[in-house]
Write a structure and sequence with these properties.
15 helices, alpha/beta, homodimer, six-stranded parallel sheet, two-stranded antiparallel sheet, ADH_Fe/GldA (chains A, B), 387 residues, 12% strand, globular
Chain lengths: 387, 387
């Protein structure tokens, strides 16, 4: 087992009507709030009105219009400016992972005198950050329980993940009911995102029975419950379990003591959504089985065997490569079965910029250090196989 | 899924030589330290000397001799007195769960003007507590990652569990190498303790695929790795995985969203070790299969089927009661196979005080509200079946 440090100080408040505790939660942070949200679905669902009703005596400044693959300009920059102007004391992020990721960048940027990109790019280490409370409306990214985020900078086609222990949300409020209205497409994409978070950690050199068991359980729970949620979008227990599954995706608890895996599919998908602004979870679902196929080898096959037998129930009596290939096909088939478009072309991506994207990934994502190292040519091959 | 709140702010520092970070960890708490430990094994192993060497400029007051089933008088009372006299700023607990449980009671008592028992008994809610850093030398209780403890008061035969969010350790240092010298008997008892922590949460009315999967993985990891550790006490990976398994036992993360289970075996075992001062994990291992047999019914059988199939690999094609009975026998056989004495008589407990203990449990442990409710007569029957 590999040495590790682990701490996740975030308080989870989970369940139906958990929002009732919002006033008690907010009390300790001060009255000047930045309310950050996305395209307005929280107005349609009544959540926006509910938040306002619960915090009548707060001075609320709003930052709306945060997009999927949240943008440095304008969202992060606007948020930082508002925080400074209004002397914001706490950020209340209401939405999915993009809203929260953006809010994390704002929380750090608000306490920094220079250009916020310095912090996101890792050039400067943040010394402080505003506290964050979030109300999550989409089961997907796990941002509610980690200290990281991903920000896109359009002019340079950069999509950068950053992490800082200062950026754990203080409190995450998770009410599965808010996910009842999530579309079929976003429900499937969110599940694919969460499944890939697990797989990125599962496919590694050194793991433990415990970690493997946790990850296999999370994958199986995601697969069973997304089917139920697609069949009946108001199945509370299915939505709740999806939400809890997603929570563990990115804070490391599933792979404590495991060796470095490198998160290759995320590295590659970041380029796809930086260049084409596609839905992150769909990009991941498309890449994942092609990546698996590409890296399958004598060195990696045993992990695929374990995955195939324990997650998909493939007969352990078969030959190891047969099990691995069936497992990869089962992965593809599962994503297809929940309605994910399984070719990049369906998302409007063609051959045109593949080599450019592959070079960008090779130069920026460090995938030559992944468990199964990827160089520019590998990355381009995987992109092409995904078309 | 049941609503829940969850937060575990403790930082885990895990792995070989993790202790090297002790000076950096201690820095923020102040120089006046209460060093709490047990019977002196940390002197034999060199850990005591190492701690002293790493903290040369600290003002260290010692509280030694903390016993298994830690005692209110003298340990808690002495610790509280020392903290007040020496104006202690942080407690450094070095040992197993008993040392840490005792240190938690001291941490709260040191910041309270009245009788510390008020806090342990729940009569008064603590308003503050000293910070705690621990170095764990036994894989068992999970106290390093929860905010609870169990304290025994000899004159009243009370053994009381108390919890307070103030009592999460700030930092837990876990180096599996420190457990290499743990005896066969304590290794087995610690594993049985951790397994029972999981089972107490597994056997409940409402759970999730995710929780069940986490718990089944933890049980399987404990069973596989304790065998390896017994065979080769210096098997680092086995000791490490045992240690990590145990960490999750009692902070609730294995059963988020599950319904109230009641922790019945702990309720019963507390009486056994309060009256007879036996090893907690052995008491639990003896009671568990008898409790299972006692509560097996049409209402409970499905959980036993899931347990039997997923943990012990029993053929799911068999009849449900046959699976359940085989699972209970497998539980007994497993504990016996790792050398645990499986009869209370072997620990010096006879018929004599069974009715008195059963009454004590029935009056104090609330087991009539457990998933499978237990009244005094049930408790006495389970004790008798355990003789």
């Amino acid at each position: 087992m590999v040495n590790f440090e682990y701490q996740t100080p975030t308080r989870l408040m989970f369940g139906r009507d958990a929002i009732k505790k919002l006033p008690a939660v907010m009390e300790r942070f001060g009255k000047r709030v930045l309310l950050s949200y996305g395209g307005g679905s929280i107005k349609r669902t009544g959540l926006y009105a509910k938040v306002k009703e619960l915090l009548p005596d707060y001075e609320i400044t709003e930052l709306s219009g945060i997009q999927p693959n949240p943008k440095y300009d304008p969202s992060v920059l606007d948020g930082v400016r508002l925080c400074k102007e209004k002397q914001i004391e706490v950020i209340l992020a209401v939405g999915g992972g993009s809203v929260l990721d953006c809010s994390k960048a704002i929380a750090a940027g608000a306490c920094y005198d220079g250009e916020p990109w310095d912090l996101i790019s890792g050039k400067v280490k943040a010394k402080a950050a505003l506290p964050i409370v979030d109300i999550i409306t989409l089961a997907a990214t796990g941002s509610e329980y980690d200290c990281g985020g991903v920000i896109s900078r359009t002019e340079t086609n950069d999509k950068i993940g950053y992490m800082d222990a200062l950026l754990f949300p203080a409190v995450s409020i998770l009410d599965p009911v808010y996910t009842f209205t999530v579309s079929r497409r976003q429900t499937a994409a969110g599940t694919a995102d969460a499944m890939n978070h697990v797989m990125e950690q599962y496919f590694t050199g050194e793991s433990t029975l415990l970690n493997d068991g946790f990850m296999e359980a999370t994958l199986k729970s995601l697969m069973v419950n997304v089917r139920k949620a697609l069949e009946n979008p108001e199945d509370y227990n299915a939505r709740a379990e999806l939400m809890l599954d997603c929570t563990y995706g990115c804070n490391g608890i599933l792979s404590l003591g495991s060796s470095y895996s490198g998160w290759p599919c995320h590295g590659m998908e970041h380029a796809l959504s930086a260049y084409y602004d596609i839905t992150h979870g769909e990009g991941l679902a498309i890449i994942t089985p092609r990546w698996m196929k590409h890296i399958l080898s004598e060195k990696t096959v045993e992990r695929f065997v374990k995955y195939g037998v324990n997650v998909f129930g493939i007969d352990p009596g078969l030959g190891k490569f047969e099990i691995a290939e069936r497992a990869i096909q089962a992965t593809y088939d599962f994503f297809a079965s929940i309605g994910i478009p399984m070719h990049l072309k369906e998302l409007g991506i063609d051959e045109g910029r593949i080599d450019e994207m592959a070079r960008h990934v090779a130069e920026n994502e460090g995938l030559e250090y992944a468990w199964a190292p990827l160089r520019q040519r590998d990355i381009a091959d995987i992109f092409r196989a995904s078309l």
